[in-house]
Design goal:
The complex is a heterotrimer of chains A (about 300), B (about 260) and C (about 300).
Chain A: H1 9-20, H2 25-60, H3 66-70, E1 73-74, E2 79-80, H4 83-114, H5 119-131, H6 136-150, H7 157-181, H8 185-193, H9 198-227, H10 254-262, H11 270-301
Antiparallel strand pairs in A: 1-2
Chain B: E1 10-19, E2 22-32, E3 37-41, H1 48-55, E4 65-73, E5 76-77, H2 85-91, E6 92-95, H3 106-116, H4 122-135, H5 139-142, H6 155-167, E7 173-177, H7 185-198, E8 203-207, H8 211-217, E9 220-225, E10 234-240, H9 241-246, H10 251-261
Helix pairs in contact in B: 3-4, 3-6, 4-6, 6-7
Chain C: H1 4-49, H2 52-56, E1 61-62, E2 69-70, H3 73-104, H4 107-120, H5 125-143, H6 152-176, H7 180-188, H8 193-222, H9 225-230, H10 248-255, H11 264-298
Antiparallel strand pairs in C: 1-2
The chains are: A mainly alpha (about 300), B alpha/beta (about 260), C mainly alpha (about 300).
Chain lengths: ~300, ~260, ~300
C-alpha cells in the first residue's frame, strides 16, 4: 500500500460530471415524459388485451360443461349446448382449407418465385393488397350474389365456405410470399448451380425451409375464416339448424350464434352467450399460441 | 460419361454481356486450359463475376441479360439450343462468395447434387459423399458427425462443405466466385491448399480481388478492367501468372498490380 | 454430361409445375374482378331507377314505405362519425405505442408485446362487440347524458380497439425499417432517444406511418359486426357521436338478408356495397402506393 493509485481517481469522476451538462435538463425531462407516455400507451394496449381475455374467461367459464359443448340448443335456444355451431365452424374451416389454401399458397409461390416485376404482376400485387382491405360485409354481398344466387348453391355451407375462402385468400397469399422471401437467394443459386430445375429447387430446398412460415400463414387465414360473421350472414348461416351432414345444408356457426344470442331484445340466456364467446376465442387462442410457439422453436433452429 | 470426357476447357471468343441496354462486358476472347487454375482479377465492377456466370449460364435466371459471342466447352458451344443449362451446371460446378449450405445435414448437402442426377443407391451415395468431403479437405473434421446440421459448422468449414457439394456431381470445371472473401486467414489457407490439390482433376476458374491469392494459386491470370463508367469492361491481358505479376505487357495491368502491391 | 432424356423429363415437370402455379396465381385477380362485377351487375337496376346522385346525396332512408326513399346520407354520416371517433382514439394510442416499441422498449418486452398485439388481431370482432355491450355501454349510459348507450361513440371506441393491431404493427414495421445507421448518427451527435425519434426516425418513416393510418381507416369504415351491435342503428342523420347511428356496413348487414331478391331495395343495397367497395379500394390503393414507395426508399 505504499503506492496509492486510487488517489488519482476522484479527479476523473469530476470530469464525467461535466459531460452531463452537454445534454440539457429540458431534453432529459422531455425524454422522460415521452418515454413514460408512450410506455403507458403500449402497456395500456397489452393490459387491455389481458383484461378482455380475463373478463371473457371469468364470465364464460361457468357455462362450460361437457353437455354445453356436445349438446344441441334446447327450450327455444335458452338451454342446451352449441354443438351444431361448433360443427358448422369446423365444416367452414375444412371448406376454406380445401379452396383457399391451394390457391393462396400457389399464388404466394407464383409471386415470390416466378412472377418477377412486370407491369401486370404489379397490378396483381395491388389487387391482392386491396382484396385484404375489402370490408367483410362486401364479401358477404358478393358471396350472396355469386355463390348463393348465380351459381345456385343457395343458403348452404358450400356458399359460406366459398365466400370465406375469398376473405381468407389474401391472408394466405401474403403470408406465403413473405415466408418464401425470407429465404436467401444464395440458397436458390446454390441449388441451380448444382443442376436443379426451378421446380426441384422449390420442392427440395425452398418450400421445406419456408414451411413453418407458410403453415403459420395458413392457420392465421383459417382462424380469420372461423372468426368472421359478416360474410356468412346472407350465404347460409342459420339461427338454428341441426348438425350439418353435407355441404348443401345451411348451418349454425359460432360467431353468428354469439352475435344473434347477444343481440336478442331480451337476453334470456347470458350463460350461452358468454360460453360461446369463450369457446370461440379459446379455440382461436389455443391454435394461435400453439403455432407461434412451434414457429419460434423452428426459427431458433434455423438461423441464417 | 463424365469420366471419359477430357477435363473441361473453355474457348471464349468475342463474348459480350449486356444488362438491358447497358453493356457490361465486351469483346472478351481467351482460352482456359484444362486442369489448370485460372484467376480473374480486376477492380470491383469490372465484370469478373458476370463473366464467371456465363460459364454455367447462371445469367439465364436473371431478367434481361443478353449474352453474345461464343463460349465453347470442350469444343462445343454451351449456348447452343441443344445444350440444356441444367445438365451444363452439373458439369460446371460453382462455389459462391458466401458459404451457402442448405439447411440440411452435412451428408444431405453433399448428396444433394448426385440425388438430383438420379443416384439413389446408398453405397454409391456414401462413396461419393466421402470422396467429395476428402477432396475438399473436410472429411477428417466431420467424419463422425455426417448427420449434423450444416449450420453448426464454422464459416470456413461451411465453405469447404460447399466445395464438397459442388464436387459431388463430378464436375469437369469448378467456378469459384471470391470463395474466401468472407473467411478468416486460416480458413482461406485451407481452401487455397484444397484448390491446389483439386486442379489435378478439375479445371478451376476463380474470381478474386486479392492479388496475392491470385499469384499464390493460379497458373494463368486474366485481368479485366472497366476504364470509365460509360464503357463496358474489357479483357486487358491474359498470361501465365508469373509473367503477369513480374512483367505485365500492358501499362494498365502494371498500374493495377503495382498500385495494389504498393 | 447428363443423359438428355432425364433432363428432358425434369424440364417437362418444371414447365408443368410453373404453368399450374401461374394459372392458380392469377385466379386471385379474378376474385377481385368478380367482386366488382357482381356488385355492379346487381346495382344496375338501382342505378337506372333511382340514380347514383340521388342515392349518394339523398338524406332520407325509407326503403320499405310505399313512397320509398333511398338516400345514403344517414348511413354515410353514421359511418363518418364512427370512423372519426375510432381514428381519433386509435391513431394516437397506436402510433405512440409503436414509437415505444421501436425506440424505447427492451427486446424482451417488445417480443411479448408484439405477440400479444398479434394475438389481439385474431380475436373475432363479435367478441369485441359483446364485451362492448356488457362493459362500455353501461358505463356510457351512466356517465353521459344519453338515453341508451347504443350510440356512435360506443361503436367508435370499440372499432378503435379493433383497428389498434393494424395500426401498431404496420407503424412499428415502418419505424424499425429505418436503418440503424441513421439512429446511430443522431445518437453520436448527442441527441436523446426522443429527439432522434422525432427528428430522424419519424420523418424517415412518415410514409409508412401514414399508410398504417390509411389501412386503419379502411378497417374502421369496413367494420361491420361491432357497429351492428353497438351503434344503435337509427335511420336518421346523426348530428353528433352521442346519437344513435347506422353505418353503411350496418345497413347492408341488417337489411340484405330480409329483402326480396332482385327487387329495387335489394339492388340499392348492392349499390351501397359498391360505394363502400370503391371508398375502401381508394383508401387501400393510396396506402399501398405509399407503402411501396417507402419500402423502395430503404431497400437497396
Amino acid at each position: 500500500m505504499t503506492r496509492t493509485p486510487t488517489k488519482t481517481r476522484p479527479a476523473r469522476s469530476k470530469e464525467v460530471v461535466t459531460f452531463s451538462s452537454y445534454c440539457s435538463k429540458r431534453a432529459r425531462r422531455i425524454e422522460a415524459i415521452v418515454r413514460s407516455f408512450t410506455a403507458i400507451c403500449c402497456v395500456g394496449v397489452v393490459v387491455l388485451v389481458v383484461f378482455l381475455l380475463g373478463y371473457l374467461f371469468i364470465r364464460g367459464v361457468g357455462s362450460l360443461s361437457w353437455s354445453f359443448i356436445f349438446d344441441a340448443p334446447k327450450d327455444r335456444m335458452t338451454a342446451g349446448g352449441i354443438w351444431p355451431a361448433i360443427v358448422g365452424t369446423l365444416w367452414l374451416i375444412g371448406l376454406v382449407s380445401a379452396f383457399a389454401l391451394p390457391v393462396g399458397i400457389a399464388t404466394g409461390i407464383y409471386l415470390a418465385e416466378i412472377a418477377g416485376q412486370s407491369r401486370p404482376v404489379r397490378m396483381l400485387r395491388i389487387a391482392i393488397a386491396n382484396m385484404a382491405g375489402v370490408p367483410s360485409v362486401v364479401y358477404g354481398l358478393f358471396g350472396y350474389a355469386a355463390f348463393s344466387l348465380a351459381l345456385g348453391f343457395g343458403k348452404s355451407l358450400l356458399a359460406m365456405g366459398l365466400t370465406l375462402s375469398c376473405v381468407t385468400l389474401p391472408v394466405v397469399i401474403t403470408a406465403t410470399e413473405e415466408a418464401l422471401r425470407q429465404i436467401p437467394k444464395e440458397q436458390r443459386q446454390a441449388a441451380m448451380a448444382l443442376g436443379c430445375t426451378r421446380a426441384r429447387t422449390l420442392g427440395k430446398i425452398v418450400l421445406p425451409t419456408a414451411l413453418p412460415g407458410i403453415i403459420t400463414g395458413a392457420i392465421l387465414g383459417l382462424s380469420r375464416a372461423a372468426a368472421e360473421t359478416a360474410p356468412i350472414l346472407f350465404t347460409g348461416v342459420a339461427f338454428f339448424a341441426p348438425v350439418a351432414t353435407n355441404v348443401t345444408q345451411p348451418s349454425m356457426a359460432l360467431p353468428y350464434h354469439l352475435y344473434i344470442m347477444a343481440t336478442q331484445p331480451t337476453t334470456p340466456a347470458p350463460h350461452i352467450v358468454w360460453g360461446t364467446a369463450l369457446v370461440l376465442t379459446g379455440m382461436l387462442s389455443i391454435t394461435n399460441a400453439g403455432i407461434a410457439t412451434w414457429r419460434s422453436y423452428k426459427r431458433r433452429k434455423l438461423q441464417w | 460419361m463424365v469420366t471419359t470426357e477430357p477435363a473441361g476447357s473453355f474457348d471464349i471468343s468475342n463474348l459480350s454481356v449486356s444488362y438491358g441496354s447497358e453493356a457490361a462486358l465486351t469483346g472478351v476472347s481467351f482460352y482456359i486450359e484444362p486442369r489448370r487454375v485460372t484467376a480473374l482479377i480486376g477492380p470491383s465492377g469490372c465484370g469478373k463475376s458476370t463473366l464467371l456466370r456465363c460459364f454455367n449460364r447462371m445469367n439465364d435466371a436473371l431478367d434481361n441479360v443478353k449474352v453474345e459471342g461464343l463460349i465453347a466447352l470442350n469444343g462445343s458451344d454451351i449456348n447452343a439450343k441443344s445444350v440444356d443449362s441444367v445438365s451444363l451446371r452439373m458439369y460446371v460446378g460453382q462455389v459462391f462468395q458466401r458459404p451457402n449450405p442448405f439447411p440440411l445435414s452435412i451428408y444431405d448437402n453433399v448428396a444433394f447434387g448426385p440425388r438430383t442426377q438420379g443416384i439413389r443407391k446408398r453405397e454409391q451415395l456414401d462413396e461419393l459423399v466421402i470422396d467429395s468431403l476428402k477432396k475438399a479437405a473436410l472429411y477428417d473434421e466431420v467424419k463422425n458427425s455426417l448427420k449434423k446440421h450444416a449450420f453448426e459448422l464454422s464459416g470456413g468449414q461451411q465453405q469447404r462443405l460447399c466445395i464438397a457439394r459442388a464436387l459431388a456431381t463430378k464436375p469437369g470445371v469448378l467456378l469459384m466466385d471470391e470463395p474466401c472473401s468472407a473467411l478468416d486467414p486460416i480458413s482461406t489457407g485451407m481452401i487455397e491448399s484444397t484448390v491446389e490439390q483439386l486442379k489435378e482433376s478439375v479445371t478451376i476458374v476463380i474470381v478474386t480481388h486479392n492479388m496475392q491469392q491470385a499469384s499464390r494459386i493460379s497458373d494463368t491470370t486474366a485481368f479485366l478492367l472497366r476504364e470509365s463508367i460509360d464503357e463496358p469492361a474489357q479483357l486487358i491481358e491474359v498470361t501465365d501468372t508469373t509473367t503477369m505479376f513480374t512483367q505485365p505487357s500492358d501499362q494498365r495491368t502494371e498500374n493495377y498490380i503495382t498500385g495494389r502491391f504498393g | 454430361m447428363n443423359t438428355p432424356a432425364k433432363t428432358r423429363t425434369a424440364r417437362t415437370c418444371d414447365a408443368a409445375a410453373t404453368l399450374v402455379i401461374t394459372v392458380l396465381g392469377w385466379t386471385a385477380i379474378f376474385v377481385l374482378i368478380a367482386i366488382a362485377g357482381f356488385l355492379v351487375h346487381s346495382s344496375l337496376r338501382a342505378l337506372d331507377e333511382v340514380g347514383i346522385w340521388s342515392m349518394i346525396a339523398g338524406s332520407d332512408w325509407f326503403p320499405t314505405s310505399s313512397n320509398a326513399r333511398f338516400g345514403f346520407l344517414p348511413a354515410q354520416i353514421g359511418s363518418a362519425w364512427v370512423t372519426i371517433v375510432a381514428l381519433s382514439t386509435c391513431v394516437p394510442v397506436g402510433v405512440f405505442a409503436a414509437i415505444y416499441l421501436s425506440e424505447f422498449a427492451s427486446t424482451r418486452f417488445r417480443e411479448v408485446a408484439k405477440a400479444v398485439i398479434e394475438f389481439m388481431a385474431t380475436i373475432p370482432s363479435v367478441v369485441f362487440g359483446l364485451i362492448g355491450l356488457s362493459v362500455l355501454v353501461p358505463l356510457i349510459r351512466e356517465h353521459l347524458p344519453v338515453d341508451s348507450g347504443l350510440i356512435g361513440l360506443s361503436a367508435g371506441l370499440v372499432v378503435g380497439i379493433v383497428c389498434l393491431p393494424t395500426i401498431i404493427s404496420i407503424s412499428e414495421d415502418a419505424l424499425r425499417s429505418v436503418p440503424r445507421e441513421l439512429r446511430q448518427g443522431s445518437f453520436a451527435l448527442g441527441n436523446t432517444r426522443w429527439q432522434t425519434a422525432y427528428k430522424v426516425v419519424l420523418p424517415a418513416a412518415s410514409s409508412g406511418v401514414f399508410a398504417a393510418v390509411m389501412l386503419g381507416l379502411g378497417r374502421a369504415i369496413g367494420e361491420t359486426m361491432v357497429v351492428l351491435m353497438l351503434a344503435g342503428n337509427a335511420g336518421i342523420i346523426p348530428t353528433s357521436p352521442l346519437e344513435a347511428a347506422r353505418t353503411m356496413t350496418g345497413t347492408i348487414a341488417q337489411e340484405t338478408g330480409e329483402v326480396v331478391r332482385g327487387g329495387l331495395h335489394f339492388s340499392v343495397l348492392f349499390t351501397l356495397g359498391l360505394v363502400l367497395f370503391v371508398i375502401t379500394f381508394v383508401i387501400n390503393l393510396i396506402a399501398d402506393l405509399v407503402l411501396e414507395r417507402s419500402r423502395k426508399k430503404w431497400s437497396r
